[in-house]
Amino acid sequence: MRLFEGIRVLEIGGGIAADYATRLFADYGAEVIKIEPPTGDPVRGMVPFIGNAPDENGSAVFLHTNTSKKSVVLDLEEQSARDALLKLAATADIVVESLKPGALADMGLGFDDLVKVQPKLVMTSITPFGQDGPYAQYEGSELIYYGMGGPMAGNGSEDDVPVKLGGYMSIYQTGNTAATATMAAVLVAEGQGEPVHIDISGFEVGLSSSDRRTTFLLAHAYNGEVTGRGNVLGGILPNGAFPTDDGYVQTVVTQAWLPRMMAALADDDLNAYFMKVAENPAMFATIETKEAIDAALYPWLLSRTKQQAMEDAQRHKWPLTAIKTPTEVLDDAHYKQRGFFTEVTHPIGTVVHPGAPFDIEGGWEPGAAPRLGEHTEAVLSTLPVDSL
Amino acid sequence: MAHLPLEGLRVLDITVVWSGPTVTMLLSDLGAEVIRVDNPWLFPSSTRGMVVRPTPPQMEMMGTMGRAYPDGEPDERPQDRHAMFNWHARGKKFMTLDLRQQSGREIFIELAKTADVFVENNNVSVLGNLGIDWETLHEANPKLILLRMPPAGIGAPYSSYLGFGAHFEAFSGVTAVRGYAESAPATTTSVFQMDPAAGSIGAFAVMAALRRREKTGQGELIVLPQVENEMNHIGEMFIDAAANGYDNPPLTNRDRNFVQGAYPTSEEDRFVSITIRTDAEWRSAVGVMGDPEWAADERFSTQAGRLAAQDEIDAAIAEWTRSRTRQDVFTALQSVGVPAGPIMLEDDVFADPHVKARGFLRENTGYATGTHLYPGHQWKWSGPEMKWAPISGLGMDNEYVYKEILGFSDEQYAQADRDGHISTMYLDAAGNPL
User: Fold this and answer.
1) Which of A108, B7, B89, B341 has CB 3.0 to 4.6 Å from A148, enough for a Cys bridge?
2) Residues 6 or more apart whose Cβ sits within 8 Å of residue B303
């Protein structure tokens, strides 16, 4: 039995957050119907494209966030389309929408309207700043989400601007959180027959998520500290990216892990230095300690490839890893053995997708992302003609 | 009146650092009784603080993360006072148990018989070493759902590797695609996006399994390889690499689809973000900037033209923002529908009118910290009010767990104490409080 067999989801408005939230249901077995305007989900227009050729069915971002779904084109400017959407909502368990606060209600398709036709509905509204408050109508982007909600102010070099994460990770995390909230509401709706309307704010998802942000917000409440750019974990023990013969490795060395690093380095001078530290602990938190470590660490790394350095370090349980590009990751023996990447056949060509977020019985089965309007006729023809 | 969906369910928790604790925080918010099991003989680094009882030089050396105690003081009970633990600890119950002992293992299995969910995010070998693997627990309680969160999955070359999110992200592709363009990656350390990503999806997975259990009556094993989950958050880059042979480089704050950046303001070392996604937004932004001469350049009227001239546009926008406050830039651009926002330090968040209007920050009280404002729930809903409860202390719920749940007599409890399971402090090898 698929995990979400029998669940029907409508998605309205598109965008990466809503698309990813509903994809998590789709690939685990729910039926997800995308309601798209005639111009399509805006994600269809996003670079990169398969073959670098712009195509409404070929955006890699769209292909990734819309597997296993159906696409139904409805121009909600038209009353007939709004009627059709209402009929569809009557058959759905979940509606995920990402329009501006109040936009659906203005069309007679708000939570209160939909609950009249589906009394156990879960409706999840995803916006940059939530359904109310002074910024409710404001616009967002990955950069805005991460800069306001995430720990961007503390990310990067003191000599340069604060820097974001790669791609759209804050927006993905907003979709991820929306899926979690939706799952919880499904338990309420199915278990108790109560409808639930969820208000997801991308800003608040950042402010409440566990990457440093929550810790540093609470640290500020505790002691007034603010954490700007630079090295937030302290600078004596190695923490960051370090060069090897052919690229970079990443390490964070805590005090508990220091002996493991020293065992791997097996450096006589460093060992002698720490013999002296053992006799005089006050020596530890000094710049001399950092210099002694660096004098052993850099030559050790530069005489190895990043892969060799990772394997040699991890043999001593020293947490150090190779920084790999997506192409290197695609080719990595680890993921090959995991069978992680999967190929999905699509009219645009074969698409290589990353695999399951989690493994469970009857789980993840990505199907092709829909072409624009591919299922309009098939889905609308199932609706009763005059029932409403 | 509806009740919380996980009310009446019990969750056992032997999680560390952030990702696993986020899962159990969400389950607790949704009504579950979460029992966190700490081993008083093993201080888990980077969970209840960085080290058990930091010295002032250590705290200085470890930065914000080392100093994150109320008033900057570790005080008598540092294990109950650290921000990296307390933000997710609300409402959970804390017991102590030495799982390395046979008697500890037996007590845990008895507890597992009363539980619905068990969550762990330890190194992949830990459950087996402790004798509480899936087979053992499933036999003891067929209805139990076990969520394992091995960073790199089970049974492959890197599965045994050790580290935090910052380490594992390196071999997932995530690290290589972020940071400053054309500079070594060393300038963007301390990113741990793997944790929130796994925290949300872990709670999602557990609830999906609980829903299925209603139908099948059976528990199940869920394995959440944390890097693999996070790789889905840059999924398009793998599709791009496989289809087009293109490796996304770090772009600083740029985007391949439109012009955006982080710009200086009139406030020292405080920045504002601006994203201009469409031609219409470009015209609106130019209007807000007072229709400057430079912006009339024909090349800038199309997306492609703007993307080709990002250095010029960035310099000109920075010239405009440099004499304005973040708030001025933010509200001026947003009032015409252009995405902009201050890059917020912690004090900005606490002062923000929207954060206040939404009631996001909420007061809570910790056993060893007093009352402070905490980051609030991850979402709002019209459903039953989510749990918001005080923060307990290490081992402070031992009597409840041992006596009320497990039915221990006073004598049995005293024996558990003699066996070294009961403590409200971390202990050294001789059994003295650290």
Assistant:
1) B341
2) B257, B258, B278, B279
Mean pLDDT for chain A overall: 95
The β-bridge partners of B38 are: B96
Q: What is the amino acid identity at position B36?
A: R
Classify the C-alpha dihedral A163-A165-A166-A170 as positive or negative. Answer: negative
Q: What gap in Å lies between CA B46 and CA A53, rounded to an integer?
A: 47
pLDDT in tens, A288-303: 999 999 999 999 999 9
Q: What pLDDT sits at residue B190?
A: 74
Task: Please indicate whether, in this complex, the C-beta atoms of B68 and A322 are within 8 angstroms of each other.
Answer: no
- Pairwise CB contact (< 8 Å): B204 & A323: no
* Run of H or E residues at A321: strand A320-322
What CATH superfamily classification does B259-350 receive?
Answer: formyl-coa transferase, domain 3 (3.30.1540.10)
- Nearest CA-CA partner of A93 in A195, A16, A236: A195
DSSP character string of A197-262: EEEEEHHHHHHTSTTTHHHHHHHHHHH-----SS-TT-SSS-EEEEEETTEEEEEE--GGGHHHHH
Residues of chain B found within 8 Å of residue A138, distances taken between Cβ atoms: 334, 339, 341
Note the residue count of chain B. Answer: 434
Residue of A106, A98, A108, A179 whose CA lies nearest to A131:
A98
- B272 by DSSP, 3-state: which? strand
Phi/psi for A34 (5° steps) reads -85, 125
Q: What is the DSSP code (8-state) at residue A45?
A: G
| ipTM surpassing 0.90 | yes
> pLDDT at position A387, please?
47
User: CA torsion sign, B292 to B309 to A145 to B71?
Assistant: negative
Q: Is pLDDT above 90 for A350?
A: yes
List the single residue in B87, B205, B239 with the smallest CB-CB distance to A358: B205
Of B189, B205, B334, the CB nearest to A239: B189
Per-domain residue ranges of chain B: 10-232+360-418, 259-350
Contact between residue A177 and residue B200 where contact means Cβ atoms under 8 Å apart: yes
**What percentage of chain B's residues is helix, strand, coil (to nearest 5)?**
40, 15, 45
pLDDT of the residue at A232: 53
Handedness of CA B72, B78, B84, B88 (dihedral sign): negative
Distance (Å) from the C-alpha of residue A308 to the closest C-alpha of chain B?
A: 13
* Domain B10-232+360-418 listed as CATH 3.40.50.10540: yes
In whole angstroms, give the CA distance from residue B234 to residue A363.
21
pLDDT at site B186:
61
Helix (H) or strand (E) holding A117: helix A111-117
Q: How confident is the model at residue A36 (pLDDT cuts 50, 70, 90)?
A: very high
Query: What residues of chain B lie within 8 A of the CB of A63, using their CB?
Result: 236, 239
- The pTM score is 0.97
**Of the candidates A265, A278, A211, the residue with the CA atom closest to the CA atom of residue A238:** A265
